[in-house]
Design goal:
single chain; 5 strands; alpha/beta; Rossmann fold; 176 residues; 46% helix; 5-stranded parallel β-sheet
Length: 176
């Protein structure tokens, strides 16, 4: 086994997965890779709070909250604490990069902090936020800001599997 890929995930990736929206299969691919030790997911300590209220849905109940906590206890997650330094860095990013939203600035500052402290470089920052994706190449990081898409060869295999399966009526929501 080679060195695992390092991806920073903002909350939009988790929300896509938890809402079982289009693209959730792509997110699941990376979670499977993480289960196998091929991927490490870097997240802000702020992320588990953000996902408690999913877009256009009621807040997650206390019982479901425990499932969320268990989900984030997996060994492949590495958390960057939302410290004062990260918060101040996010403020500076907002002032220096027009169009960067506060939550995205916290995620970007967390990604930068991870690289600074660990000495490692992220392979990508994954997001589904269109306004954040539009800033790719304009922000102070060498990591590409992109949607989490499986490698092209894997995507062909996934599409072939989908074409062979009978069409489901409606997908079930993930309980994680």
């Amino acid at each position: 086994m080679g060195k695992p890929k390092l991806y920073y995930w903002d909350s939009s990736v988790f929300i896509k997965f938890l809402n079982d929206e289009e693209g959730a299969d792509d997110v699941e691919y990376f979670l499977d890779e993480a289960d196998q030790g091929d991927v490490v997911l870097i997240v802000s300590s702020f992320t588990p709070v953000e996902v408690l209220k999913l877009k256009n849905q009621k807040p997650i109940t206390k019982a479901e909250q425990n499932k969320i906590r268990e989900f984030f206890e997996k060994d492949y997650f590495r958390f960057v604490d939302l410290t004062r330094r990260v918060g101040e860095s996010a403020q500076t990013l907002i002032w220096d990069y027009p169009g960067l939203w506060p939550k995205d600035a916290v995620h970007l500052a967390s990604a930068i902090q991870f690289e600074r402290i660990s000495g490692l470089h992220l392979d990508a920052i994954h997001s589904y936020d269109e306004h954040f994706l539009k800033l790719h190449g304009k922000l102070p990081t060498k990591a590409p800001i992109e949607k989490p898409l499986p490698p092209q060869g894997v995507m062909r295999k996934l599409l072939a599997q989908v074409e062979k399966r009978p069409k489901p009526k409606k997908r079930k929501k993930h309980s994680n």
